[in-house]
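anyone seen this seq b4? input:
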Amino acid sequence: MPAAKLHGQAVRTLVFCTFLWALSFPAMKALSLEQHTLLPDAGSWFFTSLGVMYRFGAAGLVLLLFNVAALKTISRRETEQGIALAVFGVAGILFQMDGLAYTLASTSAFLTQGYCVFIPMWGLIIHRRHPSLKIYLSTLLVVIGVAVLAEINFHSFKLGRGEIETLIASVLFTGQILLLENPRYAANRAGNFSTVMFLAMALLCLPLVWATAPNAAAGLHAYSSLMAVGLMASLVVFCTVFAYTLMNRWQRHVTATEAGLIYCIEPVVASALALFLPGWLSHWGNINYGNEQLTWRLLLGGGLITAANVLLQSRWLETETPKT
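predicted toks r here
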């Protein structure tokens, strides 16, 4: 396939991934509400670590079943990349979740998207290459758009424990994105290192599950309803197996900077889904999870992020500088 068509296909696929990931936000929120009724004595750390362990463990087993032949010839670098992605992923999630306990959800949502700034900074520091004017403008539009979307109040903004931990999480997510661009792993097969990544993430969560479980049977009680099982199944199939394997397969055909800006579409889609999906889930599971309202912040913030990505894919302000 010609390079231009390959790039276009990669962009479309990564945008599709943001739609799949966006489904995880209302699904995880509904799952949390359901689990607190099933297991009221358990804490949020237990539900978080258990959910990550089940989600990525099940996804790893699914890939294992479909990848048996290829995994027989798995290379050292595929294993290395999978483990590295798992470490960055789990550490990022844990810092993000702990930071959320010490800051506003809106602040966390804003700071988590910091990778769209960190990735160009990495290219500037390590490769001594300045981003193009188009990248600067796209990044600025995304930052403003996410700030509007997350309802950030800069007058009351402070850099405390929660904010610092969320920034650390964003740096770790930056590491994940950069690992997929690393030329060292260019020949790796996505199915192989994705399988290793998923299973390693599940194993890394096991000690935290054990430490936070209120009792030995809590891991089963947390998923003792049809709704809980159904929500986890959707997270495994759509938000993990499909989304992550597509990302791992196609992100190598765009720059890390471009990928980071594309991924900022995710909170826009998540906000749009929150307008109607919570009501559907509440009706299905009889939980109290209300729809959000359409606001000028969603329209303006979402419009700015969308405009940034349209600009990124346009020929306007294009230069002949090397990719970073």
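The longest helix spans residues 3-38. The chain has one domain: 3-313. kinda curious what u guys think
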